[in-house]
Write a structure and sequence with these properties.
7 strands, about 250 residues, alpha/beta, single chain, 7 helices, seven-stranded parallel beta sheet, Rossmann fold
Amino acid sequence: MEGKTVIVTGAASGIGKAVAQLFAKAGANVVVSDIHEPDGIQLTQEINIAGGKASFFRTDVAVATEMKVLVDFAVSTYGKLDIAVNNAGIGGEQNPIADMSIEGWERVISVNLNSLFYGMKYQIAAMLASGGGNIINVSSILGAVGFAGSAGYSAAKHGVIGLTQTAALEYAAQNIRANAVGPGFIDTPLLNALDAQMKSQLVAMHPIGRLGKSEEVAELIFWLGSDKSSFVNGSYYPIDGGYLAK
């Protein structure tokens, strides 16, 4: 990874933070992107103090122009863009379809799906300009199955896989790979709002008997971003403790 430039969205916490730390440790130039500025700046400082190379850029991934400026920042700061990890997302409104608000639906689709199109549109253009690149999109186990009360989230995460596969087909001949990962329920700040009983119920859904760790997902993303996965393209990798095997 030495000398390669990586954008990580949603990098201030959870999976994104673990990804940014892992790429930085391996020698990459990491653009830490998040809407939560204080946490993003703190992570950037921690990486640089530890001897890595990182820059923070505040981005609302649901705004197309901000995604373009993010890519421009990465290229102007480090000379090129090699890898993009599109990780930012929200859980969104929890309601049955008939009760879900239009605003709730539009918000989760905007943050969890539209943002990936915006990102890839500008990331791919930058990668083509420098001879190729690698995109890893964070979907979910709910990109493969439904989940009662999460219609918007599940629909968006299904869409992420289709978008990823299409990009792989369109740009494989131009040295750009695109793959998606599907985490199960990971013990991140997104789950902090849940009480102990609900967390226990989530644990029971995973045959391995626990929630996943951000660092475990980061290892898979890192492998997909490396040359060791050079023949992997257009794939979807669940990382779910057996959730989808049931």
